[in-house]
Amino acid sequence: MGELLETGAKACPPWAATVLTLFPDMFPGPLGYSLIGRALQNEIWRLKTLDFRAFASDKHRSVDDTPSGGGPGLVLRADIAAAAIDQAKAWSAAELGEARAAAVPVLFLSPRGRPLTQAWARDLAAGPGVILGCGRFEGVDQRALDGRGVQEISVGDAVYTGGEIPAMAILDAVVRLLPGVIGDPKSLDEESFSAGLLEHPQYTRPAVWEGRETPEVLLSGNHANIAAWRRAQAELVTKERRPDLWRAHEARKEQSDGNKDAPTEAREE
Ligand SMILES: C[S@@+](CC[C@H](N)C(=O)[O-])C[C@H]1O[C@@H](n2cnc3c(N)ncnc32)[C@H](O)[C@@H]1O
Fold first, then answer.
1. C-alpha 63 – ligand 1 centre gap (Å)
2. What is the CA(52)–ligand 1 centre distance, in A?
3. What would the pLDDT profile of 27-47 be if each residue is shown by its tens digit?
4. pLDDT tens digits for 115-143?
5. How far apart are the first and last CA of the chain?
6. Per-residue pLDDT for 4 more than 60?
7. Average of per-residue pLDDT across 187-196
8. DSSP letter string, the chain
9. CATH assignment of 3-175?
10. Rounded distance from Cα 145 to ligand 1 centre (Å)
């Protein structure tokens, strides 16, 4: 039925990812490389895939049908999607126990979903794992999503051929946040989105390249000045490139300044 890529029968089970897909052989793919791949080998996380076709009952192993109401393409059938979700939930319960398994979100990849953010990635990393359903063609019958309480998740406002590459992107973003995956966790605090801003520009040696100089402050050794320069650059680049993030950042600042100015009783409300 599914392929167990890493087992996790431990007192403290690894963060558990289960991917429902028509193309299980695509995994781990890029997730088998570098820090994320090493974390998979070291059982910081585990990855199982579940093939939708395992739930087909006819000799052609069909899992989809034409869209109700007409139109091009094919839709993953509700009975197939629901059976795969139920199987993935049963695996979670066997592995993590009923209570922890109940905290494993079931998400379906979709351009119509709520966009992934760093805050959502952090929430997912703080939980016991995730079940990710990958669509193909026109997507999945809505009744399976409604019937199983599935939330849709998007990786941005563009349409991909299938959910597998978006699922890999999500797993990469989440797994790198798990304790022990990144050597120096301080780098997670300073990167884009961690404080609601994009990151400042980065430089390395040599100090001059093709006549272009590294900003002098970065070579000064004055840590306070470097931190102030980086902060100012982060604000500038966020304001220029992502007015949406900048507005949210300013609103948060105003709110926290307001809270500081408010009398103690008002602050505690
Ligand atoms: C060709 S797309 C289906 C697009 C769908 N008919 C629509 O217009 O919203 C096939 C599958 O790729 C995945 N997919 C495509 N774009 C995505 C995105 N931006 N975020 C997450 N998943 C995406 C979804 O699983 C989707 O079911």
1. 17
2. 17
3. 999 999 999 999 999 999 999
4. 999 999 999 999 999 999 999 999 999 99
5. 53
6. no
7. 87
8. --EESS---SSSPPEEEEEEES-GGG-SGGGGSHHHHHHHHTTSEEEEEEEGGGG--STT---EEPPTT--SS-EE-HHHHHHHHHHHHHHHHHHH-HHHHTTS-EEEEEEEEEEP-HHHHHHHHHSSEEEEE--BTT-B-HHHHHHTTPEEEESSSS--SBSHHHHHHHHHHHHTTSTTTSS-THHHHHSTTTTSSPPPP---S-SEETTEEPPGGGGS--HHHHHHHHHHHHHHHHHHH-HHHHHHHHHHHHHHHHHHHS-HHHHH-
9. 3.40.1280.10
10. 14
Cα dist from 42 to 46, 128, 201, whole Å: 9, 17, 33
**pLDDT at position 232:** 97
What six digits make up the tokens of 104? Answer: 């494993």
Buried b (16+ CB within 10 A) or exposed e, 145-179: beebebebbbbeeeebebbbbbbbbbbbbbbbbbe
Note the CATH number of domain 191-268. Answer: 1.10.1270.20
Q: What number does the ligand 1 atom closest to the CA of 159 have?
A: 16
User: Domain-by-domain residue ranges, the chain?
Assistant: 3-175, 191-268
Residues with CB under 6 A from ligand 1: 109-112, 134-136, 138-139, 154-156, 158-163, 166
Indicate if the pLDDT at residue 187 is higher than 90.
no
Split at pLDDT 50, 70, 90, the class of 264 is: low
Q: By the 8 A CB rule, do 202 and 237 touch?
A: no
For the CA of 157, the closest atom of ligand 1 is: 19
Distance 164 CA to ligand 1 centre (A): 10
Atom of ligand 1 lying closest to residue 133 CA: 25
